[in-house]
């Protein structure tokens, strides 16, 4: 995580500079990859001295970790959604996904981690751990642990794909489709993964 102690300048200024550095770093990591990104390039994009980036975040790896750290508010929204009654869970999960992509606390992290994970194995592993432990972990669906993880992973595949197509790639008409229409269209698919027949896959778990 980003270090917040012993930083120069007033507290408000420190927060603004840190946020600016993280915004620039997410863009650089997504476009150039981990290997192609330099602290100097991040500093230049943020309009600060490279020494300040090192002072705030230490190493490039620490900076990357700060860029892809999901905020507690995002994880809490997901946790609360999993408490929804099973019969309403499909639509609720889609609605929360749309909310997370609209929220300024989580949208930059979601965008960055999906783009960076495409070409950086440690970030992919971080994403896998987050999905398994914190996004799918609270799920209370299925009769066995294997069934729970199977259903949860199918749900995750749909919701991650929805985020990519709608918000990252911005493919029309999904990119500008009304939220209610998206929930109506995707919710039943997610609901089938919650409690419906999964075909041969479901009979094997």
Please report the number of helical segments: 11
Q: What kind of assembly state do the chains in view correspond to? A: single chain
**Helix-and-strand structural type:** mainly alpha
Residue ranges: pLDDT <50 for 5 or more in a row? 1-11
Could you tell me the mean pLDDT? 89
Q: How many strand segments?
A: 0
Biggest β-sheet description: none
Radius of gyration: 19 Å
Separation of the first and last Cα atoms: 38 Å
SSE string: HHHHHHHHHHH
- Report strand %: under 5%
Helix content: over 70%
Looking at the structure, what is the overall shape?
elongated
Give a quick set of tags describing it.
205 residues, single chain, mainly alpha, disordered N terminus, 11 helices
In a nutshell, what does this entry contain?
The protein has 205 residues and is mainly α. Helix content is 71%, strand content 0%.
